[in-house]
Amino acid sequence: MAKEVIRIRDEFYIRSSSHRIDVRTRVLKQADTFAVFDRFGDIEPFGTGELGIYYQDTRFLCRLTLKLGKDRPLLLSSTIREDNAVLAVDATNADVWRNGEIVIPQGTLHVFRSKILWERTCHERLRIHNYGRAAVEFSFSVEFDADFADIFEVRGVRREHRGQRLPTQLAKDGLVLAYEGLDGCLRQTRIVFDPPPTRLSESAAIYQVRLEPGGGASYRCAIACEADRDSQVLIQPCYEKVVQEAASALESAHAREPQIFASNEQFNDWLNRSIADLHMMRTETSYGPYPYAGVPWFSTEFGRDGIITALQCMSFDPSLARGVLAYLAATQADTENPAQDAQPGKVLHETRAGEMAALGEVPFKRYYGSIDATPLFIMLAGAYYTRTGDRAFVESIWPNVERALAWIDHYGDVDGDGFVEYARRSKLGLIHQGWKDSHDAIFHADGTSAEGPIALCEVQGYVYAAKVAAAKLAKLFGDDARARDLSKQAKTLSRRFEETFWCDELSTYALALDGRKQPCKVRTSNAGHCLFAGIGTQEHARRVAATLTDEASFSGWGIRTVATSEARYNPMSYHNGSVWPHDNSLIAAGFARYDLRESTATVLAGLLDASLFLDLHRLPELFCGFPRRPGEAPTLYPVACAPQSWASGAIFLLLEACLGLNVSAPERRVTFSKPILPRFLQQVTIRGLKVGDARVDLLLTRHDEGDVGVNVLRREGALDVVVLK
Of 191, 223, 249, which one is at a domain's C-terminal end? Predict the structure, then answer.
């Protein structure tokens, strides 16, 4: 499938322009390296077009194909191990003919491929076993190529000029493919074969093999990604050692987290895949762990995505939030730069490390075109303190919180009307700067596009929640006057928001105000984020929940971004009728905030059902918003990222919302407020939940009458467990 980035008003937007050959790609990721293979474990130049091995926003390998003789093997099975570390592929041979006779019948040879990424290198082990009763002689080859395409080129952006492909360096056991970019960076793909191939060219390694009956042979290939800013990769000579090191790292990550088990095995499948995906997307930066947004298009630090993922996982793994806060504090804008949509105090939208970003061909080397990341940063700081009691760290970033508050008041409110709005300043930047950032996402009831500056409803909710959180932190740090002022600002915003954004005839909040302060009276999922932030009244929250769970908004799998009744509804669009798991999790948490937990359970049940039909039980970035049809799977969106961090984090926020779970380290308390469990979840066990230096194991049981019992199985340290009915 070819893809292109549509520049409608200079908007960057991924589009699919032909069908997928096979939607079931296989993804590996470790640190700044990721790989997308087809189900054979190959990288082919057809299909979706994103297949490849990537490092720092550059594709270092665009072809990798295993052939037995002249043909690809016959695929038997293909899977990613449950922990996401290893891709395993089983295959066999087709009939091999010579001189009009079958000399190797189909199914004689078993071909087993296993791959793992570790320290900028893709390691592959190939095992071939002869199950026939006679000796066999055959050849196999590994074909390869590297285009060193920038990720935006892969997405469809056409460049007038590119760097220079350098001559290939051949050795007995491997070769080096090299490219000198226009940014002056030398990028190399180093491929090593063990044992050395029978013949090696610039595009293929060929082996001549003879196997006795019952005999087998093993081969190894390592593909290292190197840039001149890095040291040369030291390729580990033992495949088993690499797998052992990766397994050890994953075990260490698991040890930091509580263990969650449910009585429903299908729920556990979804949960375990989500945990594995978050571990894979978690990337160590110099400031701590950061969840990269998604593979393949967004494998980098995104402000909004990182914050929301950290909020989703807060109850179970607050270490992610600390890494996100530290990184975003360190990269907070300190000057005005229109080309980056940067202003003092503004929080990062995204950063890119590829050639096109370095040259300014795209504005995303360090880009700040996000209207919501700044208030979300403050919300995360408040939530992190409540969860951990880590006063020293929060106090260290308090100046960043104050700078973010100053940005909200002085730069975020463009026209001084008390609402935060956006208007692009970068010629190449994003037209729309909320989470729905495609070119057609913000519109009026008649379908006409809204002209800016635009004040999104959910952004006002985030600003409200940010000021509430900042008021609590200011009081913690002894500034009572500042705390009172922030609380007053939040109350004023809440009152004005209700007066301005509520649409009584729609039973929901307007999507946005346009530049003429006219409301976009459209039923969208954005209103549910207002409940998540707590800016709405109880009565309006009840009506919003009813609107978002009716047939026009709820597809049966989840809540649509835009209701079927609206002018621009299209279930196959990116933001105008599709279903996004992260969106649903925030909305469900908003329902729970207003004690509408049955609606929360409805969302959880829909997404669980969707996970049953999806490959690897992995919820993608989004899927299409068609109505649920009995016995059929959700309809996939063709270029959705999978995994996507905030899609993986959805299950944790959904579970937290159903349980009414709140963890307060300063109070040394775990609270369950009016907990419910859906009928398909009779029990949930949480082991090793850490609160400060205390730890607790919990068993939650659904009773026939629908209430939930909470039993403390084990407690270490001073800690209260409170259940509010």
Answer: 249
What domain count does the chain have? 2
Q: How far is CA 445 from CA 432, 511, 703, in A?
A: 18, 10, 45
Question: For residues 148 and 58, is the Cβ–Cβ distance under 8 A?
Answer: yes
- Are residues 133 and 18 part of one domain? yes
Residue 325 tokens, joined: 């806060």
Instruction: Assess whether 457 and 502 both reside in one domain.
Output: yes
User: Residue 179, SS3?
Assistant: strand
| 92 and 61 belong to one structural domain | yes
Helices (H), 227-372: 239-255, 265-281, 303-313, 319-330, 355-359
pLDDT at 237 (0 to 100): 73
In SS3 terms, 16-75 reads as: ECCCCCCCCCEEEEECCEEEEECCCCCECCCCCCCCEEEECCEEEECEEEEEECCECCEE
> Per-residue pLDDT averaged across 508-537, rounded?
98
Quick one: which H or E segment has residue 5?
strand 3-5
Going by C-alpha positions, the residue among 592, 447, 421 that lies closest to residue 500 is 421
Q: Answer yes or no: is 609 within a domain.
A: yes
- pLDDT recorded at residue 23: 58
**Cα distances (angstroms) measured from residue 501 to each of 423, 589, 641:** 19, 21, 33
457 closest CA partner among 523, 388, 528, 510: 510
Residue 91 burial (CB count, 10 A) = 22
Show the domain range for 512.
256-670
Bridge partners, residue 700, by sequence: 684, 710
CA nearest to 273, candidates 29, 558, 80 = 80
Residues 655 and 507 in one domain: yes
Decide: 246 and 30 in contact? Cβ < 8 Å: yes
The answer to whether residues 224 and 306 belong to one domain is: no
Of the residues 670, 692, 715, the one at which a domain ends: 670
Candidates 227, 288, 294; CA nearest to 34 is 294
The number of C-alpha atoms within 13 Å of 30 and in the hemisphere containing its C-beta is 22
From CA 603, how far away is CA 585, in angstroms rounded?
A: 8
Average pLDDT, the chain: 94
Q: What is the DSSP letter of 504?
A: T
Residues 205 and 312 in one domain: no
Q: Are strands 455-456 and 512-513 parallel, antiparallel or unpaired?
A: antiparallel
Is pLDDT above 90 for 252?
no
Residues 243 and 350 reside in one and the same domain: no
The answer as to whether 707 is a domain residue is no
486 within domain boundaries = yes
Q: What is the CATH number of the domain that holds 351?
A: 1.50.10.10
The amino acid at residue 397 is I
CATH assignment of the domain containing 70: 2.70.98.40
The rounded distance, in Å, linking the Cα atoms of 51 and 47 is 8
Q: How confident is the model at residue 232 (pLDDT cuts 50, 70, 90)?
A: confident
Rounded-to-integer distance, Cα 457 and Cα 531, Å: 11
For residues 462 and 434, the answer to whether their CB atoms sit within 8 Å is no
The H or E element spanning position 176 is strand 174-180
Q: Does the global pTM surpass 0.90?
A: yes
What is the number of helices (H) and of strands (E) in the chain? 16, 35
What are 114-132's pLDDT values in tens digits?
999 999 999 999 999 999 9
Assigned domain for 143 exists: yes
Element (H, E) at 539: helix 538-548
What own/partner pairs with CB < 8 Å and gap ≥ 24 does 696-702 have?
696/670, 696/721, 698/670, 700/659, 700/672, 700/675, 702/676, 702/677
Integer-rounded Cα Rg, in Å, for the chain is 27
- Indicate if 271 and 215 belong to the same structural domain: no
Q: 94 vs 91, 102, 112, 143, 479, CA distance in Å?
A: 10, 10, 15, 19, 75
**Can you point out the beta strands (E) in 62-163?**
63-68, 74-80, 86-92, 96-98, 101-104, 109-118, 121-130, 136-145
